[in-house]
Amino acid sequence: xxxxxxxxxxxxxxxxxxxxxxxxxxxxxxxxxxxxxxxxxxxxxxxxxxxxxxxxxxxxxxxxxxxxxxxxxxxxxxxxxxxxxxxxxxxxxxxxxxxxxxxxxxxxxxxxxxxxxxxxxxxxxxxxxxxxxxxxxxxxxxxxxxxxxxxxxxxxxxxxxxxxxxxxxxxxxxxxxxxxxxxxxxxxxxxxxxxxxxxxxxxxxxxxxxxxxxxxxxxxxxxxxxxxxxxxxxxxxxxxxxxxxxxxxxxxxxxxxxxxxxxxxxxxxxxxxxxxxxxxxxxxxxxxxxxxxxxxxxxxxxxxxxxxxxxxxxxxxxxxxxxxxxxxxxxxxxxxxxxxxxxxxxxxxxxxxxxxxxxxxxxxxxxxxxxxxxxxxxxxxxxxxxxxxxxxxxxxxxxxxxxxxxxxxxxxxxxxxxxxxxxxxxxxxxxxxxxxxxxxxxxxxx
Length: 446
Ligand SMILES: Cc1ncc(COP(=O)(O)O)c(C=O)c1O
Hints:
Bound molecules: pyridoxal-5'-phosphate
Strand order of the largest sheet: 4-10-9-8-7-5-6
Oligomer: single chain
Mean pLDDT: 98
CATH superfamily of the largest domain: Type I PLP-dependent aspartate aminotransferase-like (Major domain)
CATH architecture of the largest domain: 3-Layer(aba) Sandwich
């Protein structure tokens, strides 16, 4: 094995990382992970760390599961790859589409596969454009998303993302991508009236729909719980009202369940919890627990029907429905079912995790606690209080670095720390996670 410093040197010389300040990373030295089992990672120095973020909100069944590994090797030995273009496909792609059709909420009985969450949203965008054109309404090209949304990194999905840090460096959004207020009461200083803030967001969204012209809007995309934007659960009544608004104006409603799918909230999908009956639903991450790249865009029967009868559908990737990725997704879903991980999050580790998270509500460095199921965030404040926060304080980044030094990986986002561990995490491991977070917060103001 190469030495740590040799690898760090090669990394600095040749590897451009996603979402990274390279100068900072090169100064500190890249953190190189080597192996993992369950919720535990090992790094190149031999240190053991608890992965409180499931990789990147993805490794729902935990690391090192034999069922998934053997599904990969078996499929690779049989048929490592074949595309689904031009009237062909493979058995795992068919079986996975059928399986997802059985699990997905409402009318979502069709799956189009891709490789990532960004591509699942990008695919949804293109299917929606094709659908409206086929329906004789080609003017419905505008897309509504919310501030604090994260939908991916392609040109179009960055345009949907409602985070200036993602938009500004690339001069995005593109024209036609409209951002309405996101239901983030704490950021709007309305944390004592979350419901009222949610109602205001809906009123603003309706005002925007009317001023843009409903006949020009193709779809509203929404993460049921906004993730990378800061773990923002919806205020009471908000999602139901947003769904109703889309219906009122004949606008398609897309649930981006890239994080919330496959058990993170104690249900197969957040759309089940809030009865969203989406027209399309985007999946990735927990679909394979990150063992291999795979995304899926689930499409409602009425929309699929139009596309199926609409002639040649000129969309798809070389690896759409990759048989090995589909085989590992089937094995992953099998583990979620056999180990009853959905029920485990709903009835056991989810409530335990939320109770531990909420015990930080009285901590002097904590401005707000947010969470749902097995995802949570602590928004942090400086000694002088919330009003003294400044954009360059980045308290979340500082806290996440302190937690990592204490053996736990959580994500720092602006002034908050976010956690979303594998669904297999135990009570003892949750205790370990929050003990390290607590130590980090106690040292935040040093
Ligand atoms: C809700 C949501 N949508 C889309 C994406 C993009 O997924 P990917 O990074 O696989 O392209 C993410 C990634 O974090 C996400 O959280």
